[in-house]
Amino acid sequence: MKKKLLLGILLSTTVYTFAQDRNWSVDVNYPINLNGSGVLNGIDGTIDVGLKYRFLHTDIVHLGLAVSGGFTSDSPGPNNSDTFKSRTYFFQPKIFAEFDLPIVSKLHPNVGLGYSVVSFNYSGSIGTTDFSNRGNTDGGLNSEAGLSYDITSRFFVQAQYDLIRLQVKDEVVFDGERVNFDFDESISRLKVGVGFRF
Question: What is the DSSP letter of 132?
């Protein structure tokens, strides 16, 4: 009985201490594409989910590792004769710094740097070109800057700007001609969402 009581106290203390540190956070965002042209032209996001772990704390800055993943989808309008559809998946590991402002304690600017893997999947057709079961995966450096605002000690809202420098490589047969793509493209995205620290 004493062992169970001691184990219960130890477990409760550990959970309480871990909860007080709040090194972890999870967030859910709606991504908005800011590009006027390019591979994501006119495609806004469906969802973006992130997980952060803060491993170094000072009075002003917290350093950590983060990973986020997102999904966008585009389909033709009701009056469009083309049947082309696209799905794009994002995977973004990064290192980040989050700052505490002494003047406004609930506001936390942050910056991050990482690498993004972007996977494109296509189906349907444009004119006579069939894109069924086509896709490619590209990658590039990712930088971010954002702000979060504490609603409570655990819940927060946030806005974040992502810039991905993507190296696009692909080959497609368009109207009977084989076309190779190899170019750099910048993808600009704004993510707006909510999060929870634990």
Answer: T
